[in-house]
């Protein structure tokens, strides 16, 4: 119990001294995660769509070669950035460019470097997510779009992509939550995010565990709030559960239920034919022919 009390006191002391730095780190983390996720989604959408462009043996050699080349390049990009840690990607991008170009190419803006690294990492994951989302849409949707004269671009924009977007929305939110946590490796390029503030506070006070506890609580709060907002967005995309069936529309005609304004159907008591039958008068049958009394 004494240790918990001491931990709480140390956390209060750290927060009282570095609260502005902690809040600034949280702000930078959220901005970086949000911007990088949006850019990564754009990269993923482009890569996913390019991977699903169909081609046949009857197409020209140039078209087939070009599409196959694009798929090979995207596959290499996806495998490299999914198969290596983001911290090493940051090192290669931020320190590798000056190393190989003799400082000709280098990042003067640390924000640009951090956004680039997180974006291309997110794009690699989103490329496969988008491809899977497009392939998850029933093939009959594509056939139906082609049957009414749509080309591939129109089919993707108006038919396939809206359905695929709904399917991959949870994964987009998942990538954002992952980026909130994974931006902690950007300290390697001196980007001041939430984890970098923790390292600075520890270096000044040597209170590693109290500062780490503050970090854990901060990251947990950010991810819980993000999860709540994303679930609300998913519910909004699903639409309302209160709806009316199309048959309830007054303009819908169903067999045996439509009646002209001036008379009822041949099957109810408002019908002239029904009344004629009741009075023993000849009427008309269901095909419009006169019925004669035998």
UniProtKB/TrEMBL annotation:
Q: GO CC terms on record? A: ATP-binding cassette (ABC) transporter complex
What InterPro entries does its record include? AA_ABC_transptr_permease_3TM, ArtM/GltK/GlnP/TcyL/YhdX-like, MetI-like, MetI-like_sf
Q: Please state every residue range assigned to the domain named ABC transmembrane type-1.
A: 26-230
Q: Name the membrane topology term.
A: Multi-pass membrane protein
Q: Which GO terms describe its biological process?
A: amino acid transport
Tagged with keyword Cell membrane: yes
NCBIfam families according to UniProt: HEQRo_perm_3TM
This chain's protein is named Amino acid ABC transporter permease
């Amino acid at each position: 119990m004494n240790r918990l009390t001491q931990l709480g006191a140390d956390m209060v002391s750290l927060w009282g001294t570095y609260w502005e730095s902690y809040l600034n780190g949280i702000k930078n983390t959220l901005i970086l995660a949000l911007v990088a996720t949006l850019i990564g989604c754009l990269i993923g959408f482009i890569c996913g769509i390019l991977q699903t462009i169909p081609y046949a043996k009857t197409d020209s050699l140039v078209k087939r070669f070009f599409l196959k080349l694009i798929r090979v390049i995207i596959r290499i990009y996806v495998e490299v950035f999914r198969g290596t840690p983001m911290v090493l990607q940051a090192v290669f991008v931020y320190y590798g460019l000056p190393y190989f170009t003799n400082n000709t190419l280098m990042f003067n803006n640390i924000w640009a470097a951090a956004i680039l690294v997180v974006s291309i990492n997110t794009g690699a994951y989103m490329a496969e997510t988008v491809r899977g989302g497009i392939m998850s849409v029933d093939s009959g949707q594509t056939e139906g779009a082609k049957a009414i004269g749509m080309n591939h671009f129109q089919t993707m924009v108006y038919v396939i992509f809206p359905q695929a977007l709904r399917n991959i929305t949870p994964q987009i939110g998942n990538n954002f939550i992952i980026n909130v946590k994974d931006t902690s490796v950007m300290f390697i390029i001196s980007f001041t995010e939430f984890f970098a503030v923790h390292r600075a506070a520890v270096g000044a006070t040597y209170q590693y565990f109290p500062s780490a506890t503050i970090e854990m609580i901060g990251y947990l709060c950010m991810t819980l709030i993000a999860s709540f907002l994303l679930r609300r967005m998913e519910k909004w995309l699903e639409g309302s559960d209160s709806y009316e069936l199309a048959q309830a529309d007054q303009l819908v005609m169903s067999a045996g239920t439509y009646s002209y304004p001036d008379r009822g159907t041949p099957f109810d008591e408002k019908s002239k034919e029904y009344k004629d039958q009741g009075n023993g008068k000849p009427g008309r049958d269901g095909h419009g022919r006169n019925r004669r009394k035998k």
